[in-house]
Specification:
Elements (H helix, E strand, L loop, with lengths): L2 E6 L2 E9 L13 E8 L5 E5 L7 E6 L5 E7 L4 E6 L4 E6 L1 H7 L7 E5 L5 E7 L2 E6 L4 E8 L2 E9 L4 E7 L2 E6 L4 E5 L9 E2 L4 E5 L5 E7 L4 E6 L10 E5 L2 H6 L6 E2 L5 E4 L8 E7 L4 E6 L6 E6 L10 E4 L3 E9 L1
Parallel strand pairs: 13-17, 18-22
Antiparallel strand pairs: 1-2, 2-5, 3-4, 3-28, 4-5, 6-7, 7-8, 8-9, 10-11, 11-12, 12-13, 14-15, 15-16, 16-18, 19-20, 20-21, 21-23, 24-25, 25-26, 26-27
Pfam family, one: NHL
InterPro entries: NHL_repeat, WD40/YVTN_repeat-like_dom_sf
Protein name: NHL repeat containing protein
């Protein structure tokens, strides 16, 4: 059993490699690296599923001193892993992630922990050296800049609606409006540099969704995916929606208007194991949608082929208690 160590400010992290034993059939591997990073609110563990081997899926567990994490993004260009802690209420960045895992030797990797006035951090979004954290407790967007000396808080914006998932689409920031079926767009988001109230440029309703949480956009396929948790008290009424030709479709809906359900694909039903799907990501090469399901069975990592619709069976159904957020990275 191999062990690797990452050090990050107040966090001491231990990586343990073992083979995954759950239902992990995945589309054939296409990458030198194909990794899914997943957080949990039930523990401080970060689970990394490695799909690069066609024959087996390997799972790496990163254990931190946080007891609950939600919000994760991996930056392959800098080999940095950004994680928001719901217990410590801070944002951490781990560096040299790939090198540490692949070295086969104990190695110390530098890391930074940024203090913040978080109340209930949820999703992260990265654009260049900027990291955005959506806080559902304060309804604020925190913008950090990654510098040579660490993470620096650049701006804090007050938002007039409840926040959850956030995603950069080019220079625009897309944000789900929690407790509704709405999508909000902040055009040229990073051009805003004055703290305080920030209004969305546009807000539209996604027909068919009861309550949205997760969001993912893929520029190559021009595909937008949004999750529907339905009733928070139910662990069986979740769904996700796929919007093809997303940019043109959204541009065609006026501010305050509705994107028709007929222009989307909805996946929901008893076969899906979707109850409260709170985060989503997409792999273009294998056409796979990854879902962080927090309620059904106590937590699952689910995956579906993008072509599926209706009451579909997941291609991956892996139990993970408190599964709360995820990020896929593939590189050939």
């Amino acid at each position: 059993m191999k062990k690797y160590f990452l050090y990050s400010g107040l966090l001491l992290s231990t990586l343990t490699l073992f083979n995954c034993s759950d239902d992990d059939n995945v589309v054939e591997g296409r990458f030198d690296r194909a990794e899914l990073y997943v957080t949990s609110t039930a523990s401080g563990d970060i689970t990394v599923y490695d799909f690069s081997d066609d024959d087996q899926v390997e799972t790496t567990t990163l254990t931190t001193l946080s007891t609950s994490n939600e919000g994760i993004e991996y930056d392959g260009d800098t080999d940095e892993l950004f994680v928001a802690s719901r217990s410590a209420l801070n944002l951490s960045v781990f560096t040299d992630v790939e090198a540490t895992i692949e070295s086969g030797a104990v190695a110390a990797a530098t890391g930074i922990t940024a203090t913040a006035a978080f109340n209930s951090p949820r999703a992260l979004a990265i654009n260049g050296d900027n990291v955005v954290v959506a806080d559902n407790g304060t309804n604020q967007l925190f913008v950090y800049t990654r510098t040579s000396s660490g993470l620096q808080l650049r701006n804090t914006f007050d938002i007039a609606f409840d926040l959850w998932g956030v995603e950069f689409v080019g220079s625009d920031l897309y944000a789900v409006v929690d407790n509704t079926s709405d999508l909000a767009i902040f055009t040229n988001f990073l051009s805003n540099t004055t703290d305080g109230s920030l209004a969305a440029t546009k807000q539209i309703t996604i027909e068919g969704i009861v309550r949205t949480h997760g969001i993912a956009y893929d520029a190559q396929d021009d595909l937008l995916i949004m999750t529907d948790v339905g009733l928070a008290s139910s662990d069986t009424d979740g769904a996700y929606h796929v919007i093809d030709n997303a940019l043109s479709q959204i541009a065609g809906v006026a501010n305050g208007g509705t994107l028709a359900l007929s222009s989307q694909t909805r996946v929901a039903g008893s076969n899906t194991f979707l109850g409260n799907p709170i985060d989503v990501d997409y792999d273009t090469e294998s056409n796979t949608i990854f879902i962080a399901e927090i309620a059904n069975g106590g937590g699952r990592v689910l995956a579906f082929d993008v072509a599926q619709s209706g009451n579909a069976n997941p291609a991956i159904n892996n139990m993970l208690a408190g599964c709360s957020s995820l990020d896929f990275y593939g590189n050939d």
